[in-house]
Design goal:
The complex is a heterotrimer of chains A (280), B (382) and C (299). With 280 residues, chain A is an alpha/beta fold. Helices cover 36% and strands 24% of the residues of chain A. Chain A has helices spanning 44-51, 78-81, 98-104, 121-128, 137-141, 146-163, 178-191, 208-224, 236-242, 260-264, 267-274, and strands at 4-15, 18-29, 33-37, 59-64, 67-72, 106-108, 196-200, 228-232, 245-250, 253-258. In chain A, strands 6-7-8-3-9-10 form a 6-stranded mixed sheet, with helices on both faces. In chain A, α4 (121-128) packs parallel to α7 and α6 packs across α7. Chain B has one domain (2-277). Helix content of chain B is 70%, strand content 1%. Chain B starts with a helix and ends with a helix. The longest helix of chain B is centred in the middle third of the chain and has 31 residues, at 113-143. Chain B is built from 17 helices and 2 strands. With 382 residues, chain B is mainly alpha-helical. In chain B, strands 1-2 form a two-stranded antiparallel sheet. Chain C is mostly helical. Chain C has one domain (21-285): Orthogonal Bundle (ABC transporter involved in vitamin B12 uptake, BtuC). Helix content of chain C is 72%, strand content 4%. In chain C, strands 1-4 form a two-stranded antiparallel ribbon. A two-stranded antiparallel sheet of chain C has the order 2-3. In chain C, a hairpin with a 2-residue loop joins β2 (136-139) and β3 (142-145). Chain C is globular and about 60 Å long. The chains are: A alpha/beta (280), B mainly alpha (382), C mainly alpha (299).
Chain lengths: 280, 382, 299
Amino acid sequence: MSETVLKVENVTMQFGGVVAVDNLNLEVNRGEIVALIGPNGAGKTTAFNVITGVYQPTNGAVWFQGEKIVENHPQGKMKALYKGEHAGEYTAVLAPTPDRVTRLGMARTFQNIRLWKSQTVFDNILIAKHCRATSNVFSAAFRLNRKEEAEQRENVEALLETVGLVDVKNELATSLPYGRQRRLEIARALAAEPKLLLLDEPAAGMNPQETEELTAFISEIRDRFRLTVFLIEHHMNLVMNISERIYVLDFGKLIAQGTPAEIQNDKRVIDAYLGVSGDA
Amino acid sequence: MEKTNKKRLWITLLCAAALLILVTLLENVLDPSKNVMLFISLKKGAVYALVAVSMNLLNGFTGLFSLGQAGFMLLGAYTYAILTIPTDQRDAVYYIYNGSAINFSLPELLGGGPVGLVLGVLLALILGGCVAAAVAWLIGLPVLRLKSDYLAIATLGFGEIIRAVFQWDKLGPVTNGANALKNFPTFSSFNIQGGPRLSTCVAFLLAGICIAVILLLINSTYGRAFKAIRDDEVAAEAMGINLARHKRLSFCISSFFAGVGGGLFAMLVNQAQAKTFTTAMTYEILLIVVIGGIGSVSGSCIAAFLYVAASEWWLRFLDTETVLKNGFKVPFLRTGFRMVVFSVIIMIVVLFFRRGIMGDRELPDLLAGLSGKTRRKEASGK
Amino acid sequence: MQYAISILLSGISLGGQYALIAIGYTLVYGILRLINFAHGDVFMVAGLLMVYLTSFLGGILPPAAVIPAGLLLAVVLTVVLGFVIERAAYKPLREAPRMSVMISAIGVSYLLQNLATYITGGLPQMYPEIPGISKTITIAGVPTKVVTVVTPVLVLVLVVALTQLINHTKIGMAMRAAAKDFETAQLMGIRINAVISVTFVIGSFLAAVGSVLYFTNYPSIVPLSGALPGLRAFVAAVFGGIGSIPGAVVGAFIIGISESVIKGSSWSIFSDAFTFALLIVILVAKPTGLFGEKVTDKV
């Protein structure tokens, strides 16, 4: 059961002289909901960006479903600048573009909602299906892919039904209230048929009631779509309620990991959040 | 959703068919020699509509700001001309270079006569598009990585480079250097002697088919992916859309149709000469796209006809000095005043109709009513 | 050897003239992110103004005063033109998408060209001879006009003055702030419209000076005279990294010299093509030009 879906191995991300993520190691197992928390600027989103191919790490590797998808080692100017560990261990360079990572089965949402503004709710989800389409540009333009197109539309309709957005399917995405835009963004990620769902602060800017609904929603889709969920969040209620395990990041370094109960009582975590100096 | 799509399709097809019949009737009822400007405007409008739509595909639907359109038109025009000049005309056309390096002509190879003409012209136009698309693919490798304004200036640069290459006298036996290529089949070649005149109809038909294909593409899964890239590149990439591939695709397809448009342009003006395909021409097409509405195919078409008719035909009287019956000489009217008025009109449109004639709506949306209306309300409400 | 020197001299002089135009592009782009397509035509209008003003003033002023008065008036009127264009064609579109403003710039360029064609009747206009800089002198055995020497010196003086203005005055600080972050600058109480007007005034002033130097080398001026130098200067600005003044100057000299070298060879038909090829190579290697700042899209 505890098959590892995502494995981040010795990942260091350095921008010039600034180390944003320092030797990060973590694992997410199939079917789990795992949270990555930490104070602002701890490097959480950077870690996400490394996993999804937006950034190329300075050193380290990322494994997905048993396959190494990202690998890098300090090169060029970075060789001299590199401050992290495990410098000599990696030799290959694997740098997939984000779309490639998504097609491998990993879909994400963004901290600041990034929906396609001029598109309807329906089209926002339909477009996400594009990466699963098999028709080439000719068969698509000359409508030789009718069957696939009809299938896609049916799937989108069904997905909208599941996530409860079917009533607004012909509205413009940006005309929805904030909470539903978040939900739409998650639905869009689901449309890409991922195995692993990455949520970057899904509850940001939500009121307590919306957060509660979202919490239920995440568990629900995990079960329904047999997903693994990896999320970044600040709302401790949400994190403690749904995550099975939690990783805590501070100044780019992993300072703790464990179950919600363990994390709640971890001295280093409390210090990090309350701002006590590091040697406490 | 499906239903309104069908409805839109029918409305579009009906409009197109009606337009084609109307144009053909007009040309055979009216005397072309007395309505020269009307028919020039119609034909030029059709050609510009195609080129504008092809530019809109790139700028309006994919969000890639490219200014290479004139360069790709040039490629199409030259390919078309080189492949269709009759062999017995080649010595006359290439007299400076003692004949042409290419000594065949597609209409003749395909059997000559009316059938050879139709097939040869079609094939030459398509090949013109292919050459433009192939060059676009090559150019795209380095420049499509550039962002917005930088992409614009790089593509503009390529337009200039292509123009210089085609004027190079070392290539004279193929391109005829800085001289014009002429004597190839034009729209008028389709006027059947003693029978119906079909030149305008042919222009409309060819441009119409191309625009229809672009429309089909825009409404396909690939078109939707293009729009996603335009709206938010980062999100599009995160949702599995391969940016490099789709941008290249859009760039090549747009260039293909610009190439075909260039071939049609050569047919329109009876010659192909590198110096006509200037940056100013690209700006003209860009103006049409913006005046019509960025992201609206029907807007581009309408704007193309209005633009051409206004600049070539309706304002023509401003260029001639006019003395009224009572001896009053109308001030300002003399050569050049037409273009001054025309540019003032353009400035007014740009300043006061910022979203263009159609915004991002399509004509069938307006006609089909409902579905368009509700969607638009929300769009303007945001 | 002499040939090489003469090529180099004309290249440097051309580069200096492009630099003066390029600064106008770069300043405006830095603040408004607008490619001011009309700038080349403002440069052309400055030349035409000089033609018409000297012939008009020739009738009412003593001969010695005609050229200085004409120069002064031409520069002032060009500056006014730049100011008016910004107020009439760009300011109303401040909130509109960037594309609209650029189209407006193309429209203004169109209008200026067509207006010039109408007024001149499309005929080339003789550019007046300006005593002092039109004279022929000999440098290292190569005959050339005084303007060739004057140009780089004048460019240097003007660029130093401009950088002083931008780095050490209040309006310069406002310009830098607006270039960094337009909206925040506005929120911090910077009168953004004044800043933009000043930018256009400076740009037009430099274009007017550049036009005097440039057209002295040519016998006549036509409505399209501004298009090509404008385009080349713009390329120079992009080449050096648009938004950066030193970049524009360095870019302009590189473009000017390489143009002059190619024009002197048997490849002269490719002079513009080469300029653009150079630009594309630079952009592909360094997407924001030589001195441009790297921009990253935050995810």
